Amino acid sequence: MIALATRGSALARAQTELALADLRAQFPDRDFAAVVIDSDGDLSPASVAPDVPGEGWFTSRLEQALLRGQVQGAVHSAKDLPTDLSPELVIGGFLARADPRDALVSAGEIALAELPHGSRVGTSSPRRAAQLLALRPDLAVTTIRGNVDTRVRKVRDGEFEACVVALAGLVRIDREREGRPLDPLRECTPAPAQGAIAIQARVGSEFAEMAAAIDDPITRGCVEAERLVLTEMGGGCRLPLGALAEPLGSDRARLTVAWAAEPGSPVRRLTDESSRDGLAALALVLAQRLR
Fold it and tell me: Do residues 290 and 266 touch, judged by C-beta distance below 8 A?
């Protein structure tokens, strides 16, 4: 039996089922199973900011189980992984990426520009808060806690007029109709690696080779470029930073980065194109221009 660690939320379980389906299709003679492990973020939801990429709140306990040999692999939302990974672990594979955009969930399904003056918009992400306030400084951007289901419910119950969540999260729990995608080039550039699922393994293990067999190279190239921007801008800090690499045709890619000193300050957004092989170099250039 090959065991994969996962968090217990509905979204985490749905992501793990996608990974298990790919692994079972590639290795039909092997047995795979999910093992639920509570993360620090799950155990202390009121004390963390769950939208912050690269902090390890939702990954460290799964990684510890992997290092101890309790499981052979771990399935993560790629945006949750810290930039400074253990040298004993490797991201063996990335599944094909879902839609990486942010989505606005609002009462009445209205657009961002149509929200009434002073509307309460829930997010725990400095990145989202900065970009929302740059567009609509009149909004009351307020901290919201809980998983995707909980956040949507808080809007439906009237605690907030709207909230912003990852569109991929809505899609994976079959609630995509409840969100309006935000334009990543003009409204809200997503977090580095948003929408991607990462499969982690111990370096040199049999499972690392299995994970590599289902790796999507286009997703890997885009996510690694985005994570490089995050690393260059300070890694796991609570940065109001967005980064999105998008494939354009067979060999080109576009990289968009957005950064603000703090919520309420102007957002700097830069976009450029390169060959897909040149994405890493472009990431370094744009990060340098942001600093």
Answer: no
Per residue in 116-126, pLDDT (tens digit) is: 999 999 998 99
Closest by Cα among 286, 205, 214, 289 to 245: 286
Quick: pLDDT tens for 225-279: 999 999 999 865 467 999 999 999 889 999 999 998 777 789 999 999 999 999 9
Q: Which of 51, 80, 149, 251 is catalytic?
A: 80
Residue 65 has pLDDT above 60, yes or no: yes
Superfamily for the 216-291 domain = Porphobilinogen deaminase, C-terminal domain (3.30.160.40)
| Cα distance between residue 127 and residue 259, in whole Å | 8
Q: Among this protein's residues, is 80 annotated catalytic?
A: yes
Residue ranges of the domains in the chain?
Answer: 1-95+196-215, 102-181, 216-291
How far is 79 from 194, CA to CA, in rounded Å? 5
Give the torsion sign (CA, 179, 185, 191, 196): positive
Three-class SS state of 9: coil
CA angle 232, 238, 243 (to 5 degrees): 50
> Of 101, 95, 54, nearest to 75 (Cα)?
95
Residue 57, pLDDT score? 64
Same fold, 1-95+196-215 and 216-291: no
pTM: 0.91
